[in-house]
Amino acid sequence: MFQAKNSLVLSGQISDSPTLSHQTHDITFMRFTLNVSRLSGAYDKITILTDSRLLYNLDVTPGAYVEVEGELRSYNNKSGIGNKLLICAFAKTITQTDETHKNDLHLCGTICKAPIYRRTPLGREICDLMIAINRRYGRADYIPCIVWGKNAQIASDFSVGENVEISGRIQSREYIKSTDEENTIRTTYEVSVTTIELQ
Q1: More confidently predicted of 173 and 90
Q2: What is the distance between the alpha carbons of residues 55 and 71, in angstroms, rounded to a whole number?
Q3: Ramachandran angles phi, psi of 150, nearest 5°
Q4: Is-contact 168 192, C-beta < 8 A?
Q5: CATH, range 106-198
């Protein structure tokens, strides 16, 4: 029987001080940004959402290194400002670390939109997928994924409703949103897929 799975491990450097996100059932949730190094030397800027109690007795000042274990979550943005789908890492544990290059993600979910296959201007093959991962209380996380090369060809033949298992990494990408008034820089997130197979 297929079982949904959503797990991640990130380690990197905190780039901003934790700020209040929201409160639910007397629990205070905080958010901060974690810079996670790529092999190229660039950084992915990952939003971390956490129960404030996990931050007790930790150095969470900008520049400190931490490791986060948890899940990749999605939320509908009801403010009307920015992306319609907000992606963040929901922390279940946070520990101090010296490890600065960890970005591991494992997902088991259901394809909920038809795959989109395309080629870059340089001819590289890409397939865009949207994966739904059920969580408790009838909710689900909707995770955009990008598949490359031969795996993109394989993924392009997948159908809505099929279950897949994915490993990869979270990556952030900045883009310019143009309106009549101004151009603003926004950040979007996706899973760069390393391995993918039907379940």
Answers
A1: 90
A2: 17
A3: -60, -35
A4: yes
A5: 2.40.50.140
Q: What is the phi-psi region of residue 118: left when phi exceeds 0, alpha when psi lies from -120 to 50, beta otherwise?
A: beta
Domains 5-104 and 106-198 share a fold: yes
**Number of C-beta neighbours around residue 54 at 10 A:** 18
CA distance 34 to 196: 26
The DSSP secondary-structure symbol of 41 reads S
Q: Rounded to 5 degrees, what are φ and ψ at 58? A: -115, 150
Position 52 pLDDT exceeds 70: yes
β-strand pairing of 102-111 with 27-37: unpaired
CATH class, 5-104 region: mainly beta
Whether 50 contacts 92, CB under 8 Å = no
CB of 26 closer than 8 Å to CB of 10: no
